[in-house]
Structure prediction request, 578 residues.
Amino acid sequence: MSTRNKKFLSIVLSFAMVLGFLIVPTNITQAASNESLTIVHVNDMHARVAENEGSKELGFAKLASVVNGLRTTDSNVLFLNAGDTFHGTIDVNLTQGEEIVKIMNKMKFDAMTPGNHDFNYGYNRLLELKEMAEFPILGANIVKESDKTSDFEPYIIKDMQNGLKVGIFGLTTDETKYKSHPSNTTGIEFADPVTTADKYVKELKNKGADVIIALVHLGLDESSVNTSKKLAEKVQGIDLIVDGHSHHMLEEGMLVNNTLIVQAGSYTQDVGFVKLEFEDGKIVKKTAEVMTYEDLKATEPDAEIAKMVEELVAKNEPLKNTVIGKTEVKLEGTRELVRTGETNLGNLITDAMRKSTGADFALTNGGGIRASIDEGEITLGEILTAFPFTNTLAVIKVTGEEVLKALEHGVDAYPEPAGHFPHVSGLTYTFDPSKPVGQRIVSVMINGKPIEKTKTYTMVTNDFVAAGGDGYTMFANKPFVGEGGLLSDVLAEYISLTEMIGPRVEGRIKAVKTPTVPTEPTTPTEPTQDIKHIVQKGEVLYRIGLKYKVPWQELAQYNKLKNPNLIFPGQIILIPAK
Prediction:
């Protein structure tokens, strides 16, 4: 058992309530008095409204029960959201955030600050969501470029039951200018967080605030210029910073210059709790805890919120049946094919990724493609089936040397299927599977020119690969220089721009064997005839290759197949003589 789990066992208690079984930190419940303030905080939920046990996401119904349980025993509770909430899953994205705001209204959030992804529907839509919200959305540093005024309240002052006045102001990262699509922030800018915070801390103190909380979406990434840590170092008088953006899980918070910084992971996988204790109106103790999905999964979901979430999913079923385009060919997403070579669906998604961001080239892992899409009409549901993960676009800077390492990694398991097999756009590569792993890449071209090891390129991939997922460790910890929407959203938009699509396998990825020169003359032998294989119903080239122990790419090249994804019953496939 980990030290953290031992600690939790020593500091948590369980109690029965009307809403069901709930576990909460002892240091929170025991301090529910007139001399304390409790804060429940979440951040970077990315629209994870439904519980997902596989991903360890608590969902909004159980989160609501956690908060309601505390409110039952403590009248001095604040429920705060540090941003990146309105966008991220298809059920929420389809209504551009409207339905999630309705759920959040019922959950009675006390305040929120927008994160960069809350701008993903565009600035005007964010303002519309703000008007729908029955809780304040704070943005002290979100100002218009023209006159420096703001469409957002900079702060609020909450009068608690115990007489405390709590001042809360909001800040959003200036990285929003490139970590949401640039068009989403046209005409606005993000004022310096330190200067802004200093101004409003003084103003809140002058208005009698006993406690000052900065509700921010700044993060703690070392690659960021403006972070919550910098804010605590530079601005005096902030008692608590409730942070988001970098997805850090600070188990006990971080104390900087007597300012407590807290952040609770992401995706409702964690929930944060803070207790501030007072004597004679002054804070004498600050404590923070984070509880995980495992700690809270036994919580009975709030019935009203659970019903709203269920209705949201059901409501979107007709939208999922919406036809967004047509294809004149089957879009190949068969597991064995997308994990061993180029397919037309791999080409289509990477083309969409590159067009959406303007990156030099695109790379995505074949394991992210989960199904084929049949010829004919394409529904949104089919796209969601093919791309079910909530991966978003990430643009990073990479050197030619790093690209070569990535491609070597991508083909290391070939001809065995592997989820990390790389599909590409704007880039072509040839590899020799007969060579040792790590020495297989023969040539790479980026936009028609040979790759340069020392040159820096912009690459768009998905956030999973960008974080080092699927073994792409050479990309881990790189700052994002641009971001985009869900892969499914990006693909749907790309398809909708053309009346009829027909992507092909173009030779972006080639597996070749380097010819070997015999060391001594060989005795001529009678040539062995090629084997003629007659395609049966349901067969694919990959399976035929496995039968004869010949890579399907070699079969495609030998038979001069223009589209190896399209073979038909009765067609003859020649198997090269050995």
